[in-house]
# Entry
Amino acid sequence: MIKTSLCDLLGIQYPIIQGGMAWVATAELAAAVSNAGGLGIIGAGNAPGDYVRNEIRKIKTMTDRPFGVNIMLLSPFVHEVIDIVCEERVPVITTGAGNPGKYIEKFKRSGTKVIPVVPSVALAKKMEQEGVDAVIAEGMESGGHIGELTTMALVPQIVDAVKLPVIAAGGIADGRGLIAALSLGAEGIQMGTVFVCSDECTAHENYKNALVKAGDRGTIVTGRATGHPVRMIKNKLARQFQKLEEAIYNEDEYEKLGIGRLKLAVVDGDVNMGSVMAGQIAGIINNVRPVKRIIEEIIDEADNVLMALYSKSRR
Ligand code: TUI
# Structure
């Protein structure tokens, strides 16, 4: 049975966290993950405070287990979302797309655990000094907004640089990935793409099917020129972004092309002109399963990988 210090820190059964994906990570998905023994996370994304409060109240009726909220720090509603998450006494806050330094004291005062996503050793060290509880080291294999380093290179460097528990993210969707992450020194994993392809995920079925259909080279990174690189499925929208980047970069035109695109894909199911954010590991996912089965299969596979490694080493 795979259990780590992260399980004790968060009060969960398995060292598995679900990524707080904007539009995708609703109370339904997060509750299913928490009920299956992981940590479910509601994605606040760019949503206003009322939406986030509603989702928090909803998940409290769906599970008695710990859950979290991801705060996307580029959101125009970031301040009201932070107030609400603190008021509602959410057990765990994760942050993404920025440095949450100035909010950490407030989070800690409200009694919540704080786990920022960090794309570099420098930010991991800074976060440790500010008193966070753990960090998520997210490699550029991930879907959505990404950093520069791969998971394989980032995780051990952060593990060596801080004393905090490190959670590996990016490119993980099965038991092999879980054991690989633990081998690099991580205390757990965060996964997003595999949970999109679950029965309980409320994303449009076209979105889920686009991920199931994707192969190893099915994603592309757009937006490097904007300073906010985003990994998404290669589709008509991605090609239009690419064309704009190859031409003389026009910030206004680029920004206009991006407005409302994630909602268009997740909610309306337009997988041609919507932004179908997904990680490189989408190629490994061949079906849509219940969350409980996804987690059980990962844990079973991880146990088998460990046993196979052990017998290999004794040969
Ligand atoms: O945040 C994510 N993934 C996301 S956010 C998102 S919504 C969005 N859409 C378009 C453009 C921008 C955002 C879709 N996917 N993952 C966590 C993550 N955080 N990845 C990278 C980072 C990050 C980057 C820089 C964290 C901290 C950071 O700090 C910079 C600094 O100021 O030190």
